[in-house]
């Protein structure tokens, strides 16, 4: 019996088997992509924590420079002020980097969405070609 002459029940069984395989493959892809996103999330959270720590340290140095400035009214406070500003700017850079890493658009499952779209089109084409044949 030629492939095109198979009974409808055989075609449904083959279709069910292929859909089961497709669903399993999609589930595997989702697991991999979610794992990658959690790793990315961890790095973003670490960046936010480091940024917060550096910003806090900068604040402490800035406070120390204000104390030195008021206590002595001499140039040593200027050095502390410069260091405090540098630490604060570094902290802000980490905070911005972490915030960007945690944006929802960076957490989207793009590959999974793309394969779903491609497979949807493939199924449509298969159904369309089966109706013609």
Keywords, please?
133 residues; mainly alpha; rod-shaped
Helix/strand layout:
Elements (H helix, E strand, L loop, with lengths): L7 H65 L3 H26 L8 H23 L1
Helix pairs in contact: 1-2, 1-3
Describe the structure.
With 133 residues, this protein is mostly helical. 86% of the residues lie in helices and 0% in strands. It is built from three helices and no strands. The protein is rod-shaped and about 100 Å long. The mean pLDDT is 81.
Largest sheet: none
By DSSP, the count of extended strands is: 0
Which whole number gives the mean pLDDT? 81
Structural class based on helices, strands and sheet pairing: mainly alpha
The first-to-last residue Cα distance is 16 Å
List segments where confidence is low: pLDDT < 50 over at least 5 consecutive residues: none
Number of helices: 3
Q: Which word captures the global form?
A: rod-shaped
Structure described in brief:
This protein is mostly helical. The chain has helices spanning 8-72, 76-101, 110-132.
